[in-house]
């Protein structure tokens, strides 16, 4: 019983950590704003704290420039962390990650298409819709290519991911090459450059899709647990595995596409976070999914913070930091799996 | 509604390969049915057709209803299947695993209730895994894991329990245990259908056996009707002898992998008191035509002689060998190229056997213990025995019997 209490107890602890790192991420920057003032500015602008006065220019810097960027990082991290956890469970394979598997490149292609076709200018929601479609088609292709008898072997999964990813990336580049300058700029504004210059409009664009898809994923946590027992084992207790996989693929596509729409492809968040959380709290998705979602937010906000302070006055892309941390971890997992006789898990 | 499971004209094909064809099988409530047959006969496939994992042609009815009319969870509340070699790569606790058996009873937004936990825990104590509740399944021994999975299967609380090789890779203690549990279940009215490798254990616990051969039913009935030397030899392609073990009273099987290379010779065995069993088996394996005698009724050598199809002579117990049997025995000995005198005890009743041995063309004496300790005739038999020893072609311990065959 104590063990279970500890596991559930990790959620409020992680939320506290997220709060602290969010404020820290907002406080740090060229213009110095004390940690507590940062917190109060955020509270004031959210309408929770009246009658506070701050130094000239601090409020807009914090609330219109830095905080939205951190909030976008937290949202994208949430989406990627939860998606990674779902995919690893669904594929019964800890190597699964939305970035590595080319889902992000599918979403990127969708986003570029929306801009190229001029639809992004018609409504801001066309782009996420296209990105979602691209992501879903990419993940379906990978799934069909690597699925064999209820299992998804590591090697096939990664290879088909690379192939799809490279292919879609090439098409994206072709479209960008034949696009007008303003279209390229629009694409860059949305989908590349990591978190630099992210604003409230970025946040507003994805907050609902991310929130809804992550909550829905959590609702399917028991089904995911049962699926981990294996395809036939799951069917034997009455789980419709085909339908579950389809639903989960849609949710993962929606969450990943949302993240890609505002940050571009950020790899390894969905790989590292769920894996570490699983080591800490075990494989039960009822806790693992929310923990991975929050953990993803902490991780990405933290990486963003590092990317801004590690090489002042330059700013590294957040994707560079996640890759620097993630790639060695990925290799470590690969070696471990090799040592275990190349087992799928 | 007599038959809880009804299968009619069932065909199952993968690609173009027919795995099962024209299966007709009706199973009543509370039966313990063992599916037996060689590897690849279709045992597992048939089980998966019964719980709907394998979409087969034909008719499968559970409680009188076609399984296609059941919802996924609804069917899982009627039929549970324990799979073979379930590998779980994630460290779920045993209790988590067992609780997964409650999946078909839970709505999407419902948590496992206290009742669900109670059912899970009672099944864990039933399978003696309650102490493992919080241990991760990945760190359990094969026996522990199998019992946890069995508890999970029971937690599904179904009227039909399907077991696929439930004891593969288990110690003999756990093998017996799982079958005992299953037999208990059937006495509670639960129907158990199990694919079983071990024919002896199948014969011991099941109330009915279904022998599958190449995707079709080759025999179906009570264990002693299905498990016959002819059926097993034909389906498994070996030379099998099925017999009732006199010591345990259970059906037992002797398998001679190599079909006897026919040595056309005739051999006669003189034994008694169980001394002839191994000799009879050795001669059978070598393909000899064997006669034996004179035994006394009730002797375990007679059981062996029957299993190996040996013609034998037997006298009433505690009587001396009658003249008629004696002369028949001498006739058999004279007709055999080889006579083997086993390491048997000598009394006044069976002295005739020693006298008959004097007629042997080629006599082999098996001597594991000194004849002095086996003589209960105050030296009379010993005298005769020593005379035989002088004429014998060989006097050897039973371990070297193969040298003279």
UniProtKB/TrEMBL annotation, chain A:
SUPFAM superfamilies, sorted: ABC transporter involved in vitamin B12 uptake, BtuC
UniProt keyword list: Cell membrane, Membrane, Transmembrane, Transmembrane helix, Transport
Membrane topology (UniProt): Multi-pass membrane protein
Highest taxon of the lineage: Bacteria
Transmembrane segments: 12-35, 67-87, 99-119, 125-145, 157-182, 202-220, 248-281, 287-307, 314-335
Keyword Transmembrane: yes
Subcellular location: Cell membrane
A single GO molecular function term of this UniProt record: transmembrane transporter activity
GO CC annotation terms, alphabetical: plasma membrane
Single Gene Ontology BP annotation: siderophore-iron import into cell
Keyword field contains Zinc: no
Family, as annotated: Belongs to the binding-protein-dependent transport system permease family. FecCD subfamily.
Protein name from the UniProt record: Hemin transport system permease protein HmuU
Taxonomic placement: Bacteria, Bacillati, Bacillota, Clostridia, Eubacteriales
Automatic annotation (TrEMBL), chain B:
GO terms assigned for molecular function: ATP binding; ATP hydrolysis activity
Keyword Amino-acid biosynthesis: no
Keyword Transport: yes
Residue ranges constituting the ABC transporter domain according to the UniProt record: 5-239
Enzyme class: hydrolase
Transmembrane segment boundaries: none
EC number: 3.6.3.-
PROSITE patterns: ABC_TRANSPORTER_1, ABC_TRANSPORTER_2
Keywords assigned: ATP-binding, Hydrolase, Nucleotide-binding, Transport
Name the UniProt record assigns to this protein: Hemin import ATP-binding protein HmuV
Gene source species: Ruminiclostridium hungatei
Gene this protein is translated from: hmuV
């Amino acid at each position: 019983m104590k063990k279970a209490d500890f596991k559930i107890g990790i959620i409020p602890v992680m939320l506290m950590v997220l709060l602290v790192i969010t404020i820290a991420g907002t406080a740090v920057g060229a213009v110095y704003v004390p940690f507590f003032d940062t917190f109060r500015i955020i509270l004031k602008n959210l309408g929770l704290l009246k009658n506070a006065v701050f130094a000239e220019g601090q409020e807009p810097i914090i609330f219109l420039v830095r905080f939205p960027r951190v909030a976008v990082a937290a949202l994208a991290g949430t989406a990627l962390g939860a998606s990674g956890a779902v995919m690893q469970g669904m594929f019964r394979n800890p190597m699964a990650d939305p970035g590595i598997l080319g889902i992000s490149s599918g979403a990127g292609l969708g986003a570029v298409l929306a801009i190229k076709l001029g639809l992004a200018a018609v409504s801001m929601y066309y782009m996420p819709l296209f990105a979602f479609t691209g992501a879903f088609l990419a993940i379906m292709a990978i799934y069909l290519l690597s699925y064999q008898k209820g299992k998804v072997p590591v090697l096939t999964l990664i290879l088909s991911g690379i192939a799809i990813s490279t292919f879609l990336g090439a098409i994206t580049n072709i479209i960008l090459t034949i696009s007008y300058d303003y279209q390229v700029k629009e694409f860059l504004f949305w989908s590349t450059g990591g978190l630099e210059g992210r604003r409230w409009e970025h946040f507003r664009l994805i907050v609902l899709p991310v929130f809804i898809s992550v909550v829905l994923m959590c609702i399917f946590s028991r089904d995911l647990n049962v699926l981990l027992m294996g395809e036939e084992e799951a069917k034997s207790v009455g789980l419709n595995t085909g339908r579950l996989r389809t639903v989960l693929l849609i949710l993962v596509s929606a969450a990943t596409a949302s993240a890609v729409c505002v940050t571009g492809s950020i790899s390894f968040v969905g790989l590292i976070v769920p894996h570490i959380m699983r080591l800490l709290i075990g494989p039960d998705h009822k806790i693992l999914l929310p923990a991975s979602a929050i953990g993803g937010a902490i991780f990405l906000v933290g990486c963003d913070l590092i990317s801004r302070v590690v090489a002042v006055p330059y700013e590294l892309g957040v994707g560079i930091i996640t890759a620097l941390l993630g790639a060695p971890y990925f290799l470590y997992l690969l070696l471990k799996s090799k040592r275990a006789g190349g087992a799928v898990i | 509604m007599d038959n809880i499971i009804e299968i009619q004209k069932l065909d199952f094909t993968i690609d173009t390969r027919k795995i099962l064809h024209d299966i007709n099988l009706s199973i009543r409530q509370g039966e313990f049915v063992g599916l037996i047959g060689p590897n690849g006969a279709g045992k597992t496939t048939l089980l998966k057709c019964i719980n709907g994992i394998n979409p087969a042609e034909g008719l499968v009815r559970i409680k009188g209803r076609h399984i296609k009319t059941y919802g996924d969870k609804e069917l899982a509340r009627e039929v549970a299947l324990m799979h073979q070699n379930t590998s779980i790569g994630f460290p779920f606790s045993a209790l988590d695993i067992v609780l997964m058996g409650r999946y078909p009873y839970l709505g999407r937004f419902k948590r496992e209730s206290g009742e669900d936990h109670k059912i899970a825990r009672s099944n864990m104590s039933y399978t003696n895994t309650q102490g493992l509740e919080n241990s991760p399944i990945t760190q359990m021994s094969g026996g522990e894991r199998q019992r946890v999975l069995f508890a999970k299967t029971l937690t599904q609380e179904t009227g039909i329990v399907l077991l696929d090789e439930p004891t593969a890779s288990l110690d003999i203690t756990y093998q017996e245990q799982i079958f005992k549990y299953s037999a208990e279940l059937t006495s509670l009215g639960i129907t158990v259908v199990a694919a079983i490798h071990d024919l002896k254990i199948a014969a011991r616990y099941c109330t009915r056996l279904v022998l599958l051969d190449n995707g079709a039913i080759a025999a179906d009935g009570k264990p002693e009707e299905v498990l016959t030397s002819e059926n097993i030899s034909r389906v498994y392609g070996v030379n099998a002898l099925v017999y009732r073990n006199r010591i345990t009273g259970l059906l037992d099987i002797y398998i001679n992998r190599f079909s006897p290379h026919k040595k056309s010779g005739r051999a006669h065995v003189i034994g008694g008191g169980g001394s002839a069993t191994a000799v009879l088996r050795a001669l059978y394996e070598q393909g000899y035509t064997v006669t034996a005698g004179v035994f006394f009724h009730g002797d375990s050598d007679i059981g062996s002689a029957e299993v190996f199809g040996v013609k034998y002579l037997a006298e009433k117990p505690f009587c001396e060998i009658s003249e008629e049997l004696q002369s028949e025995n001498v006739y058999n000995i004279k007709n055999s190229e080889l006579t083997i005198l086993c390491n048997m005890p000598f009394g006044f009743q069976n002295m005739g056997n020693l006298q008959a041995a004097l007629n042997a063309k080629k006599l082999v004496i098996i001597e594991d213990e000194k004849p002095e300790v086996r003589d209960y005739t105050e030296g009379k038999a010993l005298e005769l025995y020593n005379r035989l020893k002088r004429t014998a072609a060989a006097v050897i311990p039973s371990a070297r019997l193969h040298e003279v065959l």
